[in-house]
Amino acid sequence: MDGTKPEEPAPSGVAADDRPVAPGAAGPQIGGPGGAPSSAVRAMTTFSAADEEKQRGVRRMKLTATGLLLFVALVYVLAKWATHEGAGAWAGYVAAAAEAGMVGALADWFAVTALFRHPLGLPIPHTAIIPTKKDQLGVSLGEFVGENFLSEDVVRRRLRSVGIGSRLGAWLAEPQNADRVTAELATALRGALTVLRDSDVQAVVGEAITRRANAQEIGPGIGKMLEKIVGDGGHRRVVDLVVARAHDWLVLHDEQVMDAVQGGAPGWTPRFVDKKVGERVYKELLRFVTEMRDMPTHPARGALDRFLTDFATDLQSDTDTRARVERLKGEVLGRGEVQDLIASAWTAVRSMIVAAAEDERSELRLRVRASLLSLGARMATEPKIQGKVDSWVEGAAVHVVTTYRKEITSLITDTVASWDPEHTTKKIEANIGRDLQFIRINGTVVGSLAGLLIYTVSHALGA
C-alpha cells in the first residue's frame, strides 16, 4: 500500500528485458520504430549513477509518506480508544482529523501509484498509465509540439522577437568574432577540398566545360567581341607587336630567308640569279614590314582592319562561317591535350585556394574578414538589412517546420515508442517520483485539516 513493495509483474503485452514479448508488443530495440536513435533507447533502458541516487531519494520519500500514513492511523486508533474511555470532546476532533488524513493519504497513494503500476497488482481500469499508455503519450506529445512549437505563426513570432539580424550584425561587427568566423570558414573550405577526390572533380569540371561549350554556339559571341575590339582599335597594339617582332626576326634571320627563297627556285636557273632573286625578295619583305611598322596609315593595316571587320560580321551572320567555327570548336575540344588542360585547371585552382585558406594574411582571408566586418556593421545599424536577414531566417525556418513537421514530430513519437515500458516507468519515477510523494504527504495533511474543519462545522451547526 505504501508503494515500497517489489515491482509487480509487467502487464500483459508489456515487454521487459528478461521476459517474453507478447505478439505485437514493443520489446527492447536498438533503434525504435522509424529509426529512433539508439542513444535515446539506451538512455531509457539503463540506469546511471544519478538515476540510482534519485531512486534512493524516491524510496526515502515513500517511507516518509507511508510513515505519516501509519502515524495518522495510530492517532485515529488512540483517539477512538480515548473517546470510548470518555476522554472528552477533544478526542472526537482528533479522531475526525486523523480519519480524514488517512482517507486523503490513501487516495493520493492510489493516484500516484496508478501512474506507474497497478495498485496492489490489481488490474484496475485506468491504472499503470505510463507503461500502458506510453505510445499514446508519445503521440500526444508529438502532436502538442507540432501544434504549439512548430506552427508557422509561432516560429515567425518567436524569431521576430529575437531580432536575429541586429544581434548577428552586432556579433559579426566585433573583430574577434569576424576572425573566428573567417578561421572556421577557412577550416571548412580546406576540409571540403581535402575530402574531394581530384579525379572526380576533374572529370566533372571537364565534362561540364565540354558540355557547356558544345551546347552553346560560340561564333556570334566571338564576332560581337571582335567587332567591338576592332571598332575601339584594340587590335592595333597586337598588330604593332606582331609587325615589330616580324621586323626584328627578319633582321636577325636574313640568311635563312634568302636561303629559303633560293631553295624554292627552279633547278635550271643559274645560282647567281637565284641569289639575286633571294636578296631582292628579302629586301622587299623587310621594306614592307618596316613601312607597316612605322606607318599607322599603311594600306596593309587598313586591309587588315577591313578583313577583321568582315570576319566579325560573317561570324555573326554568315551560316557557312559559323558552321566552320563550330566544327573547329568540336575538333579542338575533342583533342586529348585540351581535355588534359581543362582537367589540370582544377588542381591549380585547388592548390591556390588551399594555400590562401591556410595563410592568415592571404588576400582571400583578409577580404573575407573585411567583408564580414562590413556586413556586421551594416546589419547592426541598417534596419533595411536587418529586415532582409530576419525575413530570410524566418522563411528558412518556416519552410523547415512546415515541410518537415511530420518528420520532426515522428522523431518524438517513434523515440517514445521504442522505449521499453518497464524501464521507462522506472526512469520517469526516479526523476519525478520524489515530488509525487509530496502529494501523498500533502494529501495526508490537507485531508486531516479538512476533516477537522468538517467535524467542527458539523458539531457547531448541530449544537
TrEMBL record:
InterPro entries xrefs: DUF445
TM regions (residue ranges): 63-83, 89-116
Recorded GO CC terms: plasma membrane
Keyword annotations from UniProtKB, A to Z: Membrane, Transmembrane, Transmembrane helix
Signal peptide as annotated in the record: none
Domain of life: Bacteria
Region (Disordered) location: 1-39
Coiled-coil boundaries: none
Pfam families the record matches: DUF445 (PF04286)
Official protein name in the record: DUF445 domain-containing protein
